[in-house]
Each structure stands twice: as structure tokens, then as C-alpha cells.
Amino acid sequence: MPKRILQGTVVSDKNEKTVVVKVERRFTHPVMKKTVRMSKNYKAHDENNAHKVGDIVLIQESKPISKDKRWVVVTSDQA
Asked: Can you give the pTM of this predicted structure?
């Protein structure tokens, strides 16, 4: 089964080798038929502390690294 890859924005880089990434998803509400935006924060492993707040990054699913970390930063997507 392929690993999921999500795109989001770094909202915190205060932890050592960890960044918090906010991933936003948009969908149409089933009853109201209105576009809804929901976001969720993921803790991702950043080995070299290379990413700073505001960077757009891609994160990939991985085996558990710590209690909360199950994602790894794959690349920085500055397009």
C-alpha cells in the first residue's frame, strides 16, 4: 500500500528535529452544499532542522518515530 503524501505549511519549528505542519483540506458539505475548509496539524520529522515557519513542505507517512510523530518531511515545495 502506498504511503500518503500531504502538502502543508510549517507553523512551528521550535522542537529539535521536528516541525509542526498545518494541512488544510477543502470539501463540499454533504447537506449545506457549501465549500468547507478544515485543517489539521501534523508533527513531522525534520532531520537537519532545515525548514522554518512559513515554508510549504511535503510530508510522507512513516513508521512511528515518537509518541506523536508518524510523518517525515520529504521535500520543500517552493513553487
From this structure: 0.88
